[in-house]
Structure prediction request, 84 residues.
Amino acid sequence: MNEVIEIKILEDYRIWMKFNDGEQKTINFRSYIGKGFTAELLDCNNFKQAFIESGGGIAWPNGYDFCPNYLKELAGEKEHAKNN
Prediction:
């Protein structure tokens, strides 16, 4: 099962993450925030409160979260796009 085991909050709504299989990726979350209850994450101080939840995904105190399998897919799409 995929799990995020380490994160680093970067500038411009990006998060570097390391998965339990050793894969490391940086994902830009800007296109996933800004409407509804995610609007508060546009405030950098709120965005920087991201943490690894017990299931191995990434979450914020307001309840917004990403499951680790979806994060792995996003990371894979980004890597694929970079190689083409």
